[in-house]
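FAQ

Q: What does a record look like?
A: Structure on top, sequence underneath. For example:
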């Protein structure tokens, strides 16, 4: 049924909290279902998933939630590889490590779009309540078609200029991501240095230039963080790292353990694993590759077998331990307890 407005509203949520989409496993359907059942908004991360797998996860999540409980799906917007000339050299630089681990590095596919067209088609044929975008913006026509099906659309932005561009293509809301956030930065330009403007300051800058509901994301680890950001004008607050150790999360056990391991003391911004800037726990791999090129998704493809072998060996030194600055506050507990703890002062 065609509609001119989305069926979802931020005011529909009993709890003004979103569980961030975390690609690569953490955002499992069971986690999104637990978050949604607790009154917040759970998200599936479609970035790395084949279209059929994403479709199956949507079916599973719907069945778990039942009717009337909203949820979201996040997609990565494809862009050309920013520094294709640097991919071969990076692959050559990984050769010794691949040999040490006994794995074969693939030939990267520089044309990989992550099934973008197929996923958009899926979400148009079988609409979901909320769809968010990271790494740029879809065409305005895509946004309009999703909205015509009743889907609430959200763009991830990291600067004022990105916020203006997102409003111009017609999205319903903005996820304002500060540098404190774990995982990938949502910067539109893959070759640009990411902004260091704090989330609190960025919220003020964005609210001054757009007239859309704002979702605050980055470094959210306590109820005080949620209350502070809500008071600063965020309609909703998004937390990711806080859910990495949830009982229902699909996070690798090795990753979960590292978040509480005293050996890991800080986070760093790195392109070493994927070719896109991301915040992760500092480990041997981030130290060995401080100058990785802007070459997503080619680097993600290259390092995939290394990371898989690291899991098999239980060696966190090679793993992409994505985490935000508040990672020490992440607890091993049910997702519903995390929702309650973060929203206690909301």
């Amino acid at each position: 049924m065609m509609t001119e407005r989305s069926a979802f509203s931020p005011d529909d949520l009993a709890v003004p909290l979103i569980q961030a989409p975390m690609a690569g496993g953490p955002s499992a359907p069971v986690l999104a279902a637990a978050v949604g059942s607790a009154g917040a908004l759970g998200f599936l991360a479609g970035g790395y998933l084949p279209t059929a797998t994403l479709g199956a996860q949507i079916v599973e999540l719907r069945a778990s939630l039942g009717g009337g409980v909203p949820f979201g799906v996040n997609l990565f917007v494809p862009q050309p590889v920013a520094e294709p000339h640097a991919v071969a050299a990076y692959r050559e630089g990984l050769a010794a490590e691949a040999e040490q681990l006994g794995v074969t590095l693939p030939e990267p596919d520089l044309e990989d779009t992550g099934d973008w067209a197929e996923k958009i088609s899926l979400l148009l044929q079988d609409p979901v309540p909320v769809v968010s975008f990271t790494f740029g913006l879809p065409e305005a026509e895509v946004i309009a078609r999703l909205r015509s099906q009743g889907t609430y659309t959200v763009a991830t932005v990291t600067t004022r200029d990105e916020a203006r561009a997102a409003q111009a293509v017609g999205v319903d809301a903005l996820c304002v991501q500060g540098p404190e956030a774990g995982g990938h930065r949502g910067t539109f330009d893959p070759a640009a240095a990411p902004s260091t403007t704090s989330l609190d300051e960025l919220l003020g800058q964005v609210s001054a230039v757009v007239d859309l509901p704002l979702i605050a994301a980055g470094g959210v680890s306590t109820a005080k963080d949620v209350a502070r950001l809500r008071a600063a004008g965020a309609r909703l607050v998004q937390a990711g790292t806080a859910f990495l150790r949830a009982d229902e999360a699909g996070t690798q056990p090795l990753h979960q353990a590292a978040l509480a391991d005293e050996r890991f003391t800080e986070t760093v911004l790195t392109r070493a694993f994927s070719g896109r800037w991301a915040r992760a726990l500092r480990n041997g791999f981030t130290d060995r590759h401080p100058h990785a090129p802007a070459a997503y998704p080619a680097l993600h493809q290259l390092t995939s077998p290394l990371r898989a072998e690291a899991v098999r060996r239980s060696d966190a030194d090679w793993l992409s331990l994505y985490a935000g600055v508040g990672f020490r506050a992440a607890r091993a507990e049910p997702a519903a307890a995390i929702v309650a703890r973060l929203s206690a002062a909301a």
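Q: Is there anything notable about this one?
A: The two ends are 35 Å apart (CA to CA).
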